[in-house]
Amino acid sequence: MDIFWFLPVHGDGPYLGSQDESRPATLAYLKQIAQAADRRGYHGVLVPCGKTCEEPYIVSAALIEATERLRFLVATRPSALTPTFAARLASSLDRLSGGRFYLNVVAGGDADELAGDGVFLDHDARYAHAAEFFSVWKRILSGERVDAAGDHVTVRGAEVPLPPVQRPHPPLFFGGSSPAGHATVAEHFDTYLTWAEPPGAVAEKIADVRARAARHGRTLTYGLRVNVIVRETEAKAWAAADRLVSKVDRQAVEAAHSAFRRFESEGQRRMTELASRSDLVVSPNLWAGVGLVRGGAGTALVGSPRQVADRLLEYRDLGIDAFVLSGYPHLEEAHRVADLLFPLLPVSAQPPAAQPAPEIAFVSPFGALQPARGAA
Length: 376
Fold this sequence. Notes:
The protein is α/β, with parallel strands linked by helices.
């Protein structure tokens, strides 16, 4: 099991839906969390994107030197970039970090926020765009000089002279709960990442993606994004869950869910539906209370270390091997999860230390020689 943590680039705190005791996303605070994850044996951190987030590419670049083995799973919306520029970003982060860069592709989201970025594609068109975009992106990073003319992406002579460390390209994670999302990830991406729903629902999604991938002769890996509230006893864990939402009122819930319903996202619709139930315990130890006011990953595993570990192992048995966990506040909970859960799970060994970036020989437009590796 590869265990990732979460970097709260939108801010942090001990309460949902409240600014009480909140912590801004300063570089110093994010560095503390990243270093805690690095030292405690997490595989990496998910760095989310959005207009209320500090820019994840910049945050990740700023934290390279502060960490040694930690991978950065950087969320990105391809509709806001060109594939060639995105490939240069990916190659630079991968090279400068020594191969510690992954990409989490976010095709959907809030149509109003996307409009603010100048993106007016409808739901299915965003997935079609992502497929074209990353077809070009992968070819560029594999060393090709690319000409392409599609419905959404056109490039001529696109290339990246400086290759990434990870070959043929850094790993690509992708989430989506709609048929269009499943079709896109099955054909074009490496890891299907889903928010935590009851195991039966997750099993159905994995089975559908796996069958679609098989039709393309492809095999994917699978990941789960879920919050965790683990304490020494079950009673203490549920008390912590109650405290997390203790400052949330009905008006805040209604406002949040009204906003979520604008999203053209099947995954968000499913999260909001779970958080709208009278009983928020939607499966053993799986609580939808986080989704009362939080968009995105709205469920949490709540319980004793043995209970939470058993639930994670149930998802592992469905075929999931990457787990992106989070907890409030993220600094303290990174240590708590490592203390209480890691001894009960087959946690993968930390990745090897950073690898040197490959070099190739060429003269840049600025007249500088890029020497071949090993040249004097």
